[in-house]
Design brief:
By secondary structure, this protein is an alpha+beta fold. It is built from 18 helices and 34 strands. Strands 13, 16, 17, 18, 19, 20, 21, 23, 24, 28, 31 and 32 form a twelve-stranded antiparallel sheet that branches. A hairpin with a 2-residue loop joins strand 1 and strand 2. Helix 5 packs antiparallel against helix 7, helix 7 packs across helix 8 and helix 12 packs antiparallel against helix 13. Keywords: Dioxygenase, Iron, Metal-binding, Oxidoreductase, Vitamin C. GO terms for molecular function: iron ion binding; L-ascorbic acid binding; procollagen-proline 4-dioxygenase activity. One of its GO terms (cellular component) is endoplasmic reticulum.
Amino acid sequence: TEDERSNLICWLEFKLHPGLAIGPMKIELLARNPDILQIYEFLGDKETRKLALSSSQFKAATQNAAAIRRIKDFFGVKISSKVTTEALHVQSYPFGNHFLPGKDLMQPILAETAQELPLATLIIHLNDNGEDSGGVTAFPYSGTTARLVKGSAVLWFNRLSDGSSDTNAVHGVCPIKFGNKLVAKLFVPFDKRLISGKCSLKQTERFQLPANNMYFQKPELPPLVVPKRQKPPIQGFMKKFSKYSYASPNGLTELVQLEWKFYPEIKRLFQRHLKKTKNTRLEKSNEDILACLEDFEQSTKKIVENLMELPLNDLQAVKKVALNPLAIYKVIGRFRNYYLRWTIGIPEPGNRLKIKLQSILDKMYIVSGGPVRDDLEKAMLVIANIQFIYDLEVKDVAAGLIDGIDARVTLNAKDCYLIGQQAILKERFTTGIAWLEFALHLLVNTNDNSMAADDVYNELVAAEIQHDEEHPKNRIVDYNFFVKPLSQTPDHSQRITHRSLYDQELKKDWNIEKHYDNKLWQVCTGKIEQTPEVKSQLFCWYETEIHMTYKIGPIKAEIHSLSNMSAVIHYHDVLSARAVEEMKLFINDKPSRMIIDSGNYDPFSSPVLRKVDTAMVNNLSQVTLDLMSRITGYKKPPESRPMDGHYFAYGPGAARGRHWDIDYGPLTIFASFVFYLSNVEKGGETAFPRLRVKITPEKGSMLLWVNSYSDGKVDKWIEHASCPVVFGEKWIFAPDSVEGDQHQLRCHLKRRTPYEVVVNGKPIQSNLK
C-alpha cells in the first residue's frame, strides 16, 4: 500500500556495528514487518562464479573462503569452517520450475533431531537472467518481491524476538520463464544473533536491522490481516500421523479391534461391581462408565450381533465399523471422551472400579498412538462434508441413512450439535446451521436429553450473527452462505443458499463457464450424466493387440468418454489379487499423511495416506509400469530419469478436488494412469465433471487418460477429481507418463487435436463435437 511504501528507503551502509567498519554498500529496504533487505554488490563476479560452479542442489560451499568471509564481515557472526547447519548451500532452479510459498527449515546437526526454523535467511543471487525472466523471490504476506540482480543478497528474519515463527516471512519463487536461477543460501540458527542490540520484552516484536548503527523509526502501520481464503495455495502438506490416525484406513481398523478387545473386559468388570453393590444406585463418579458402555452398545449392536463375542479377527466385520463414517466417529469419540481420560487420569481415592479399569486399559492401550483431537474433528467434518456434497437431508444422515445406505448407527442431539459447531468453526455456515437446527429440533420435539436445549439455541444464534458478519459481498467462493443475511429472512422457508441457485442455473445450461464445483458435486451424486448422444458412442471390447511388437490379451477395455475427443479408458482385471495385496502392504511401510488441497478453496480438502516410491525402487512398481506400457503402447520413463510412483489410501470421507495432472517439475505429464487396488462400497469415484462422467473403482483395474493435445496444450476437458469415499476404503497406485518419452506418437498439424484412441491396433474417430 502507499502507507507501507512511504516507510521504505535505500541507503549506503558504512558501519554495521561499533566494532566493524565496512562499505559503502548499497542497501534497499523492500518491506517492513518483517524487515526485508536487498544488499547490492554483496559479492563480486569472481566469488559468484566460484559459487555457481558448485551448482548441484544443496551442495555445501563453505570452501569458498571469500564468500564466507564477506558474510562474517557484514554480520559480525562467527561461522565455522566445518560443514554445519550454517553452511552456505547452492541451489539451482531450472526453466519452468517454481517454489510454492513456505518456510525455510534447516537440516539438523544430529540425524535424530527434527528440522528447525532458522533465525534468519540470506539468499545470494549468482546469475542475472533479465527483468522478464521470472524467478523472483515473492513474499505474499508482505506484498513484495526481490529482483534477480547478480551479486546481490536478500535478508530477512524468520522468527520473532521470543523465538516464535513469523508467519509473514512465508516466501516462494515465481516460475522461471527463461534460463535458470542460481542462488546460494545461508541459514542462521536461532542460537546466533546477527546484531548485538536490545532484546524486546514484547512477545511478538520483530528483529530490526540498523542503518549505519541507527535504527529505523517503527512505522505506525495497522497490523497485517491475512484475508481469509487467501492463504498461500498448498498442494500437499506432509506431517507425521499417529498409529490410529483418521487418515489411515488400517489405523482405523486396528482402533476398532482394540476397542473390541477391551470392551468385554470393561463390561464384565462393571457387572461384577454392580453385583457387589447389589445394584444399588450407581456412584456419580462411575456414571461415565455406564454412559460409555451404552454408547458402544447402541452404535454397534446393529452391526455386530453378539457383543460379548466380538469377531476380532474377522476383518470384514471390523471394517463395517471402521470404514463407516458414523460408526467410526462414535468410536473415536469414546476414545477421546472416555478411554483416554480413564487411562491418563488419577482415579479418586477408594474408587476401586476406576483403579481396576485403569489397570485393564494400561495393558492394552498406548495413549501416544492416538487418536488425537484432530482425528475427532476430522471425523465430524467428514459427516458434514458428505451431507453437504451429496446434498442429503440432515435428518436422514442423523437417522443413519446416507445416500440410500443404512449405516445402522444414529446420531443424537449432542452429536448433531458438535458436528454443526465444527462446521461453523470452518465457516461452513449453511451446513453448520442446518445441523444446529436439527439438534435443537431433537431436544425440543423428542425424548432426546443428551444436552441442554439452551446451549444449542445460544450456539445457533451466535452462528447466524457470525454468518451475517461474514456474509459474502465480493467473495468469489460463497457456497457456504445463504443468499441474504439471515437477519433479513427470519422465515426459514425463505432462506435460499447460493449452492441451490447455482444448481438451478446448471439445470438450465450445463455448459455455462462457471460453477465448476457444483458440476463436480452433481456428477458425484449422479444427478448429471452423459447425454444419450454421448452414451451411444461408447463401447467396450477385448484388447488383444496394441502394436506390432506386443500381443496381449484378451483384456477387457471400456471407453467411458469420447466427448470433445477426450478419451477415458478403463482396463479391467489388469492386476492379480495377489499383486494388489502386495502393493497395499507396501504403502504401510513408513507412509506419510498428506492434506490434499487444490487451490485457495477446496471443499474436498481431506487427509489422505500417501507413500512415495522414490525412483520406482519397488519391484512391483516396475512390474506395473511394464504392464502399463504393454497394454497401452506408451513408453515408461527410462532408467536414466526415473519417476516417482504414488500410492494413496482414502478412508471414509477422503476425496480430492478438481485438478489437472500436468507438471512434474520441468517435465509435462503426458498421460495419467490409476491402478485401483480396492473396491469401494460407496463413493470414491474418479469424476470428470466437464465430461459428465464418473468411474467406479474396481479392484485390479486400470484407468487411463491423456492430459494434453498433440500440440502440447493442456486438455481442459480432462479436469478430474475424486468423489468422497462414503463407505469403505479406496487404494490406488498412480504412476505418471512423461510427454518427452512418447516419441513414437504422431503429432497433428491441426491445433488442439487429441491423440488417437487405438483399439486393437486401429484408430477410432468420434463424430461428436
